[in-house]
Amino acid sequence: MKSIEINIQDALYFAEKEYAALEAPAVEAFRKLDTGSGEGSDFLGWLHLPSETPQSLVDSINKTAERLRENCEYVVCVGIGGSYLGAKAVIYGLSGLFDDFYGPKPKEPKILYAGQNIGEEYMAELQQLLEGKTFGIIVISKSGTTTEPAIAFRILKEQLEKQVGRDKAKDLIVAVTDAHKGALRTLATQEGYETYVIPDNVGGRFSVLTPVGLLPIACAGYNIEKLLDGARQMEQTALRPGPENPVEIYARMRNALYRSGKKIEILVNYNPKLHYFSEWWKQLYGESEGKDGKGIFPASVDNTTDLHSMGQWIQEGERTIFETVVSVKTPAITRRIPQDAANLDGINYLADKRIDEVNKMAELGTKLAHVDGGVPNIRIEIEKLDEHWLGQLIYFFEKSVGVSGYLLGVNPFNQPGVEAYKKNMFALLEKPGYEKETAEIKKKL
Length: 445
Ligand code: PA5
What we know:
It is built from 19 helices and ten strands. By secondary structure, it is an alpha/beta fold.
């Protein structure tokens, strides 16, 4: 099967010298990943997940998913950051955009999300929806101690137990967490929940191809073997550095642009189904590279929608941006624009064309305008939106950020900055053990 195609011709003009200069450092970055000799090498477990995930794990996940599908109208995935974005990206990318308006069908539960915010109304409205419904919970937390999912799980667990009784609730709750440590592991053991393990050496934002992503995706009815197949193909394609390796090309090009003054990267799609894929990508790149006072700021737009909101800034604002377009070659369904005898709207020149033909011309026209306006363009094309191609894309972006982080000179696998808000929040909430921090923060108020 074909691999994703990457085209950097419309970016190379801007930073050709820097791109050439990054050839040897890219080889070195691949070597660091390969040999585990770079910073953060304790967290390289994701590197061979596609080729090393045992069939027994896939079968077990499918079996658990089947049980939840048989017994639930809704399955709520409780998790935040890397513990939910990957699943949401894939499920949203593969689902019909209006599926939610049809309501659940037998054995096809709707997947909902909680614990990814602390919105009181969000939780109250979710609880209202689940009132009297059959639902299951997949609670996901690597550390097992994150506040947002802990609050959501406590509330939903209580609701589920009230609705079906404690014994039945146990069969409808699955926990995905560390093998040994954390409050969620303790709780799951005590309550007797079925559990899956997040490997120690896989960080949250790299965990979509572990049970963290695979279980919710299987619950939504999608084929996780095909997802892993696609990722495995990219694992092979991207194994060794070289001028044809799409991972090397992308990692080098974006670093060359960064060194040439392009500090913001916008991930662009022309297919609304990719909206949450961009959200996943932003976390992956933001948390991996934004540290030590460095890093490209990852942003995203959904086009053509955002051409009518952000288009002006992108075309003529401060010239510190470049864009990476993820383009889907062929939509799954054909729709043509009809002829209209009166032609009052003046669009008969488009009659009989596929909607996608217009979309592709919008993409091409935008690229030409942006390049003219000083916005370099990297283009990544996938054949279609299915499990295989999303699997390829996931692995492609994961490996690219490993290479890219090393080119940038940071540890791509830690996230020390995420702790700062937590420390303040705990101090403000007077969490036991934070007495000193509470006293200090109160002086600032
Ligand atoms: O990528 C990361 O490490 C983070 O985004 C975490 O996934 C997120 O903070 C949730 O952590 P946990 O899974 O421990 O609850």
